[in-house]
Design goal:
Elements lengths: L22 H10 L4 E7 L3 E3 L2 E5 L4 E3 L13 E3 L2 E3 L4 E13 L3 E10 L6 E4 L2 E4 L7 E13 L6 E8 L3 E4 L8 E8 L2
Antiparallel strand pairs: 1-4, 1-14, 2-13, 3-12, 5-6, 6-12, 7-11, 7-13, 7-14, 8-9, 8-10, 8-12
Length: 189
Amino acid sequence: MSKTTIPTGGITDATIATGDIADNAVTAAKSTARITVADQWRLTDSFNATADTDAFITANLEQDDTSGFENLGSSMTVSSGVFTFPSTGIYYVAFTISESKNANHYFAGKIWSTNNNSSYTQRSGPYAYNVTSSSATVGSVLTTSCFFDVTNVSNCKVKFGYETNATAAVSANSNINRTFMTFIRLGDT
């Protein structure tokens, strides 16, 4: 009999010995081998980012509410730009920021995290160097990401921001994602 064909009478009890697959092994595999949280938030109002090395986005943030969006699991929460995770686990955190200026400048989007709800460490921050020989507006869209081991939801948090050497316009919209954050729980901590 072929290993890929189930006989007409089905699989007999003798085909699979008791204990070949333990019930708890199947339950454990189902509970740990899937994404249980996926969420997106965005900046709703554009603003002028002034020259600064570590500026944070602290206001005008909303969960994506455009038709077709549905978060998976419990939602992230935010207070003054600091995001709290709904459960422990290993998370993929991504940040996309859109900016422009009509002069030469550099710009970086940044992610910071804390494990003690106090001191933050910069986790990522790619730079874009925008050069123009005229008064034309130049800009960039930067996406950066990191993995974050959230071992305690009271202490492990993230926040987002930027660095620039000149005033630049950060683009936002309350209907589409222009400057936005993505959170995906990949598995248990």
